[in-house]
């Protein structure tokens, strides 16, 4: 295998500099960051802001598909009413707020 390789070039006529082989890899990483990582971080930040703004009276949908109305809000959990049932769920289980209700929270 080594005998089939061309002899190393000497003199001033070398190939392209070694750093040029990393340019496509760097471009790929930049595209990967802007196409996948950054939008995911933005979505997570918006979800965190939504969870901070939840208040009693809001109509929500959980990630499991349960539709309910927020009764009380605690630090990490909240109580919701769905039909005749009452549940205590974690805030992270909220997928979206479909309707705002109740009085605004004082911050």
Record keyword descriptors for this entry.
alpha+beta; SH3 type barrels; five-stranded antiparallel β-sheet
Give the gist of this structure.
By secondary structure, the protein is α+β, with helices and mostly antiparallel strands. The protein is 28% helix and 27% strand.
Can you give a write-up of this model?
With about 110 residues, the protein is of the alpha+beta class. It folds into 2 domains: about 20-50; about 55-100, SH3 type barrels, CATH 2.30.30. The chain has one helix spanning about 25-50; strands at about 60, 65-75, 75-80, 85-90, 95-100. The chain has a 5-stranded antiparallel β-sheet, covered by helices on one side.
- Roughly what percent helix? 25-40%
Oligomeric state: single chain
Order of helices and strands: HEEEEE
Determine the strand fraction and express it as a percent band. 25-35%
- The whole-number mean of residue pLDDT values reads 86
CATH architecture of the largest domain: Roll
Structural class: alpha+beta
Main sheet properties: 5 strands, antiparallel
The N- to C-terminal Cα distance equals 73 Å
Principal-axis shape equals: rod-shaped
CATH class of the largest domain: Mainly Beta
Any idea how many domains?
A: 2
Low-confidence stretches: none
Radius of gyration: 28 Å
According to CATH, the fold-level topology of the largest domain is SH3 type barrels
């Amino acid at each position: 295998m080594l005998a089939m390789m061309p002899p190393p070039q000497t003199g001033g006529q070398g190939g392209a500099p070694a750093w040029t082989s990393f340019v496509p890899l760097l471009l790929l990483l930049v595209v990967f960051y802007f196409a996948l990582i950054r939008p995911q971080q933005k979505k997570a930040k918006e979800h965190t802001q939504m969870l901070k703004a939840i208040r009693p009276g809001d109509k929500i949908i959980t990630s499991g598909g349960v539709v309910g109305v927020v009764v009380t809000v605690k630090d990490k959990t909240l109580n919701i009413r769905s039909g005749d049932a009452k549940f205590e769920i974690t805030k992270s289980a909220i997928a979206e707020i479909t309707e705002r209700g109740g009085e605004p929270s004082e911050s």
